[in-house]
Design a protein that fits this description.
The chain is of the alpha+beta class. Helices cover 35% and strands 31% of the residues. It contains 4 helices and 7 strands, in the order H-E-E-E-E-H-H-E-H-E-E. Strands 1, 2, 3, 4, 5, 6 and 7 form a 7-stranded antiparallel sheet that branches. A hairpin with a 4-residue loop joins strand 3 and strand 4. It is globular, with a radius of gyration of 15 Å. It starts with a helix and ends with a strand. The mean pLDDT is 95.
Length: 153
């Protein structure tokens, strides 16, 4: 891709992200649950009310954005995840083949502001054809997980 094509790709993916998020909140009312639980063993994200699982999604960990130092770390390179989580996230390296951009095979990148983090998320969601994204907030970094499919409960 040329730089111009890459910018257009980012714009299209970001627009798709916004549409998916609106649909996700409309369809599943994501913001209404009392708590959530990210389970690395089952590779799921659960939404709960009074400790009762109300909604559950299969996930892929896209990456983490360290908002205090503005760095991005891809999910496949994050040593704090299980091997299974990291292996699943390796599919995102395929974005390098699609775009020609080496950033998708590097462990992460510096000078990543919030806009850049969401652009990385948007491209990942589009590539995965995911339902949407959930940002798990953290004191030092936010984890972005792609919601792949809803599990029945």
């Amino acid at each position: 891709m040329t730089d111009e094509q890459f910018e257009e790709f980012i714009d299209n993916c970001y627009e798709e992200l916004q549409e998916k998020q609106a649909r996700l909140f409309d369809e599943y009312d994501i913001g209404s649950y009392g708590s959530y639980w990210f389970d690395q063993i089952t590779k799921t994200l659960q939404f709960k009310n009074n400790e009762i699982v109300m909604l559950e999604f299969k996930i892929i960990c896209i990456g983490t954005w360290a908002h205090k130092v503005n760095t991005w770390l891809w999910g496949w390179s994050n040593e704090s995840f299980t091997d299974d989580i990291r292996n699943d996230a390796e599919v995102l390296k395929g974005l390098k083949d699609l775009t020609g951009n080496d950033i998708f095979e590097q462990i992460g990148f510096d000078k990543c502001d919030e806009t850049m983090a969401y652009e990385a998320v948007a491209m990942s969601l589009s590539y995965l054809n995911a339902l949407g994204v959930y940002r798990i907030p953290g004191e030092k970094s936010h984890l972005f997980v792609a919601l792949l499919e809803k599990n029945n409960h």
